[in-house]
Amino acid sequence: MSPNKSHENIKDLFNDPRIPQEIDISHQVMTKIKREKERFFVKYKVSILVAIGLIASISSGYAAVHYYQLKNEKGEVLYEEKDSSQYQGKSKTVKELEPEKEKYYDKRWEIEDTLEPGTAAALYIAVYNPKKTVERVSRPFEFATLTDLRKKMGEGVYVPETLPGGYHFLDARFANGLQFDYEKYDKEALYKQAEKEKKEFVMQPLEWTNELDYMYATYKDSEGSYLNFNITNYEDVEGSTTYVVDLDKQKKEVIKVGKTEVLYTEEASKDRVSKRIVWVTEDSGKKLQYEVSTDGDKLNKDTISQFVNAVVPKNK
User: Fold this and answer.
1) DSSP class of residue 2?
2) Residue of 284, 290, 287 lying closest to 312 (CA atoms)
3) Count of CB atoms within 10 A of residue 256's CB?
4) 3-class DSSP state for residue 184?
5) CA–CA separation, 219 vs 228, rounded Å?
6) pLDDT of 166-209, one tens digit each?
7) Which residue ranges run through the membrane (predicted)?
8) pLDDT tens-digit readout, 18-37
C-alpha cells in the first residue's frame, strides 16, 4: 500500500483507448464511482489501473450477480457495492483519443498543476475546445501536521493521531464542496475575457462551501507500512451504490461493530493481500463514508472493531 496520491498519473488515462467518452475522470483520490445524470465520476485512491480495469469491465459487459449492502438500524440501505458490469448508464469505447481532445487535456492538467493548495477556479480553455466547455478545477488543502488539519476541518469529523497497529499520522488532503452551478454560471463572461485579453485560457476564482467533500489521510508505522484513512461525503451518490471492478474476485463480508455494519474486503494480488473496511454514518442527517485500507497484516477480521472505534469513538 502506498500513500494517498493525487492525479500524478491520471494524464495517462486520457490516452487509454478503453475509456468511454461519457465518463468524466476526476483527480480526487478514491476508487469510488458516483452516478449522476447518466455520467460517472471516478475518484482515485490507490492505483490508476483500478479505474482502467473498471472501464474495461464496463465495456466488456461482464455479468456479476452478487452485491453487498450496509444498513442502518431501521433496515435502510446506507451503502451498496455492485460489480461495475451492472452499471446501467450509457457508455461507449473510444478506440483512439482525438488529437485536439488530447491537447485539451494536456493543457488542462498543465494549468491545474499550477494551482496553489486550497484554491479552486472556473476554467475556460480557448484552444482545442470547440464546444467551449467551462470546467471547475481545484487543488485540495494539504497538511503535514494533524494540528493544522483539525484547525481547518473543525469539529465535524474526528481524525485520530494514531491508529491501531502503531500507525501514526503522516499527511492529509482536505477539500469542501465548491460553489459552482454549471447551468447558471456566467460562461459568457469567461468567453469575452479570453477574447479581449487574447489568452489561451482564463480563470475566475470559485469559493468553497462549508460542506465536507473529502479528507484523505496517510498513516505510517515503524516498519514503513502505509495505511490510508478516507472520509468522503456520500450524500450525492445515486442509489447509495458504489461500483467495483471484479467484485466476484474479492473476498467480502459484512461485520457488525456495535450498531454499525462494516464491509470488510480482502483482495489478493501477486505479492500481497489488500484489506479494506468501509462503513457509512448518518451524523446530523449527513451521510459520510469512512474507509480504511492497507496491505499490512494489522487490519484483519479480528481488529476491525479496533479501527472503527478509533475513528468513531462514540460507536456503540
Assistant:
1) P
2) 290
3) 10
4) coil
5) 6
6) 999 999 999 999 999 999 999 999 999 999 999 999 999 999 99
7) 44-65
8) 334 333 333 233 333 332 32
Residue type, 27: H
In this prediction the pTM is: 0.78
Nearest CA to 297 out of 274, 270, 277 is that of 274
Beta bridge pairs of residue 201: 125
Alpha-carbon gap, residue 134 to 7, rounded angstroms: 20
Residue 274: beta bridge partners? Answer: 267
Q: How far apart are CA 308 and CA 292, in angstroms?
A: 9
pLDDT 10s digits, 45-56? 223 333 434 444
- CA distances 94 to 23, 181, 187, Å, are 11, 28, 28
Q: If you write DSSP's letter for every residue of 74-130 in order, what string do you get?
A: TS-EEEEEEEGGG--S-----SS--HHHHHHHHHHHHHHTTPPTTEEEEEEE-SS-T
Continuous segment of H or E residues that includes residue 141: strand 141-143
Q: Is the pLDDT of residue 64 over 80?
A: no
- Give me the sign of the Cα torsion angle 91, 50, 134, 198: negative
